[in-house]
């Protein structure tokens, strides 16, 4: 399974192709993503452990959605049950990826709190007010810890980006999937920069539409992940099997029509050749009477003066007509 390096413009192409796949079944995508959001909210409402549980199982849902993308590419419809289809395939490996991501998030959060100090922690967790004299120090610590959290979160996200797809489509072990996902993102850092900038702009545009744009943006995010996976790991563009079948049928119809036309022309040519052959054969065995132009066989004709006649009488009449001229 080779990791391919693609052009920077492909980051934008992933979004465009993802939108194309979304438009193949927009209603099904909206319903599927809405169902996933409801599940995420419901699980997160569980006290203490809700958010941890959803983080653990989120790779399973992502893998299921990717399986739905693959089925759509094969011409099959997207269904809500695709969300749960990965629960039957490599569930332990997918949960392991979720566990690694969860542990990474916890460590990053702990480091942020450690750098920010107790004052920032009290302000964020408990809403404690800070004196104006201490506000600048708290804001400086908050900015530093935020930059560190961002710097550590990016590699964690890179390692988790393709991991569910590699596990469910290639049966890769969790550690190997995390490594390949990280190096795939690193090798294609420029396309992912273009992809990230484009998504930030689309997110701002969605927020400007009072959140209505997220109805399209969230499904496109999922479909674009699948397109980027195909581009980087399979070196293949998105191909919808139904469209290919229609194109192949059209080409077949054109080929059949061309073959029929060619066969018809060949048939006419053969007929003309046969007629010419018959005419040539007829001219060798038959002739015409020089007096009445009747068709006669040469072996039965009366010959005279280099011409052929159908009877002796016509021969004499022909001679009588020629005498006055002489």
Description:
There is one protein chain. With 326 residues, the protein is mainly α. The protein has 2 domains: 10-245, no CATH class; 282-326. Helix content is 75%, strand content 4%. The chain is built from 11 helices and 4 strands. The protein has helices at residues 10-23, 26-44, 50-73, 91-126, 132-161, 163-170, 174-187, 189-208, 214-234, 241-285, 312-325; strands at residues 286-288, 295-297, 302-304, 307-309. Strands 1-2 form a two-stranded antiparallel sheet. A two-stranded antiparallel ribbon has the order 3-4. Helix 1 (10-23) crosses helix 9 and helix 3 (50-73) packs across helix 9. The chain is rod-shaped, with a radius of gyration of 41 Å. The relative contact order is 0.11.
Q: Main traits of this protein?
A:
mainly alpha; 75% helix; 2 domains; two-stranded antiparallel ribbon; 326 residues; rod-shaped
Secondary structure: elements and pairs:
Blueprint: H1 10-23, H2 26-44, H3 50-73, H4 91-126, H5 132-161, H6 163-170, H7 174-187, H8 189-208, H9 214-234, H10 241-285, E1 286-288, E2 295-297, E3 302-304, E4 307-309, H11 312-325
Antiparallel strand pairs: 1-2, 3-4
Low-confidence stretches: 244-253
3D shape: rod-shaped
Q: What is the count of structural domains?
A: 2
Terminal-residue CA separation: 103 Å
Spatially, the strands of the biggest sheet line up as 1-2
Q: Which H/E pattern describes the elements?
A: HHHHHHHHHHEEEEH
Q: Let me know the largest β-sheet.
A: 2 strands, antiparallel
- What proportion of the residues is helical, as a percent range? over 70%
The number of E-state strands comes to 4
Rounded to an integer, what's the Rg over CA atoms?
41 Å
The structure class reads: mainly alpha
Average pLDDT level:
82
Number of helices: 11
State which percent range the strand residues make up: under 5%
